[in-house]
């Protein structure tokens, strides 16, 4: 920052000397950017089909590969959720849905959606595609490692999917995989299913670490000239912070996976207490099940923000571009992202209020949890203030952004309920919790993903997605998702427990039956609406309206490449030089309503730009 | 690969490495002696931790050159340790609570 | 190419704020590979911390007595049990190899091919000795003392489980390090780092900074051993 100040001081001095000497030399000096510290990156250009499209080292191709794989697993997760809703809405109607299969679906749906869809899509997909472009690098710093990262992820997905086909089926212990039940007989998939799940997770962690190191180092060490951290688009800030969280949180998942694998295979007793089964003691003795919960949530809570922070970042950019206004409180947004990221390591046990942990922890974790609401709320205010009096384009992208704000606020507020111990105790393990986390980390990030795909599809393919289909997709998804999750809050309040296969003749039934049916119908419709989106993707790939260069009139670097879509190496002959932040929209005095990041100050002398 | 014009990696005299090397041996010897003389209780704990952190610090600072790195890198590496410290602290409390509840409900009996 | 001169940049916290506020790089003068290794080690620190935290939590909450490591790991010398003798030697070997690695890095900086290569090779041999002694230690525990991951004759059964898991994970790190040390010793002697020969897989140019990166990894392995030594053997 003081570097900036020095430059500003230098500028002022130069202007002074210029006016006194009355020479034109100052012209070049207000555009001064420090010369390059690093030589040009050495890239490997693939020649064959295999090195260009399959074992490819280009971050953009890897990003698309990640996206496609993640979306594929997402479709599997979607189908699983349909089957769950079939059972819940119409119990006993489908004979192939037994209690065992139901638990297996719950587990696989949860794990797929959180880890293999959202994490992989935001960090692997958007991260790979956007980071080098947005910071002005030719590629990730270690393209080879990046390639391995994707293939590790691919193997992890294959192992995960294989667990559908092994004897006993996939694990049915819930996505949290709590021992002791996860590996004890009687839980569906306690044989091969859980083993494959643990192996798949370990592979995912290893693969992700390779990718994550790339993202972090590219952002920290390979930015282009003039691109300071405080000029980066918020998308990059979100992905960056989420990646750091992932690098520090996934170890806990890896460790707990390894330990549970040993408990399963070698009958060690890390997590397994003394257990009497049918009058006989099992070989386990003295382990600590709650330790697993601590390890899991030490990973699990940062994981929530690994999903949320990239969404925060991306939505900030989308809102700013499509309301033609700079993001309100850019620095506050950055600090909020960093603050949320740091705090997320100190809140994990709010998932465990009813687990039987030390009762003193409730106070500590309730406090930290409520503190984390502060930066989150700041971000919401800033999004709304960005929209305020903006020149808003109501297109599909903006609709999804607005949908995000609404669903996120809704889910966030229920989070404050659940963060308080006294309120959480009656609500925990009810549908209220389901409603909360689906709103806040299911629907809200998905809204951003859709918005982001509508926004960046023209960059990736050179063609727009169809607006009409897009709006149809949005309205069905948004209203449908609300009709799914809003009634669930009510179900939670009347005490319907989560993860129950059916309610049998419990007193909840009378009031919950109709509502469950309604939710199921909405879920079928919303799920089906996603196929409109897939149709739109395929159709627009060939027949979409050609987008040309920078169709949204955006400022950030990814739109300023010489070729659209960008080619390997991104920037052609010369790397771009950055002179400003990515948010100079609607600047008074400027000719256009946007000033790209590469525009030098001397080109827009009359514009009243903010100093960034 | 990234490389700056001036060769940044200033070399250090061999003496400093030998000194640290020797110190590590001495410290390891001391921590071994803690066991040899069979110190117990708080003294054992504090001595073990003291020698451990001293050794770890020496390795990081000199063998891994952290002492000569710029503060940006040093701070990025050291601050995340607060998360671990928090985790350790809470797990100490949790371990005590678990053993308390095990003994209490086993011998005294609970609800 | 660059006007970056590290000696001219301010140091301390002022330097830190300038580095973070500047464009292009945040860690001034730090090679990409070195930065990546540091961040990887940070992540790996979390892995080992989680292992050790889990060990601490379980050890604190088992009701059965924890075996006394001083006796379990004693070695008979001339009929007298010497506590932790093998562990002391292993520590000695690992610190020695850490020292030779530090010297290898120093000679790498100076682009002294011969000395650098010999010290890398020496480090590799030290690491190999360590792994060998660990194999001896494991086999003694398994075949002689009857310690198994699922139980042991001394007390709480988690003792064996944590011992094999944590030292096994550390040993894996050492073994991977040894393999890379041998590969890099060959590369140094072949002169890859002087000619900038391209890597077989990555197609990246070789540079002496690779020795420093490998050194960071190796010192980290030593660092982890310091913690394992304190928490597992002395506690």
Can you walk through the features of this model?
The complex is a heterotrimer of chains A (about 600), B (about 110) and C (about 240). By secondary structure, chain A is mainly alpha-helical. Chain A contains 16 helices and 2 strands. Helix content of chain A is about 60%, strand content about 0%. A two-stranded antiparallel ribbon of chain A has the order 1-2. In chain A, helix 4 runs antiparallel to helix 16, helix 12 packs antiparallel against helix 14 and helix 12 packs parallel to helix 15. The longest helix of chain A is centred in the N-terminal third of the chain and has 37 residues. The N terminus of chain A is likely disordered. In chain B, helix 1 packs antiparallel against helix 2. Chain B has 2 domains: about 60 residues; about 30 residues. Chain B is flat and about 65 Å long. Chain C has a single domain, classed as Up-down Bundle (Four Helix Bundle (Hemerythrin (Met), subunit A)), CATH 1.20.120. Chain C has 8 helices and 2 strands, in the order H-H-H-E-E-H-H-H-H-H. A two-stranded antiparallel ribbon of chain C has the order 1-2. The interface between B and C is large, with 61 and 71 residues.
Short description:
The complex is a heterotrimer of chains A (612), B (111) and C (235). Chain B has 111 residues and is mainly α.
Query: How many DSSP E strands of chain A?
Result: 2
The amount of beta strand of chain B, in percent, is under 5%
Spatial shape of chain B: flat
Mean pLDDT of chain B: 84
The low-confidence parts of chain B are 1-9
Please report the two chains with the greatest interface, counting residues with C-beta closer than 8 angstroms to the partner's C-beta.
B-C, 61 and 71 residues
Helix/strand class of chain B: mainly alpha
For the sheet with most strands of chain A, the description reads: 2 strands, antiparallel
Helix content of chain A: 55-70%
State mean pLDDT of chain A (0 to 100 scale).
Answer: 90
pLDDT below 50 for ≥5 consecutive residues: which ranges of chain A?
1-5, 11-27
CATH architecture of the domain at 57-232 in chain A: Up-down Bundle
The helix tally of chain A amounts to 16
If helices are DSSP runs of H or I spanning 4 or more residues, what is the number of helices of chain B?
4
**What is the CATH homology-level superfamily of the domain at 57-232 in chain A?**
Cytochrome c oxidase-like, subunit I domain
Number of strands of chain B: 0
Strand order of the largest sheet of chain A: 1-2
Q: Please summarize the sheet with the most strands of chain B.
A: none
Quickly name the level 1 CATH class of the domain at 57-232 in chain A.
Mainly Alpha
Large-scale geometry of chain A: globular
Helical content band of chain B: over 70%
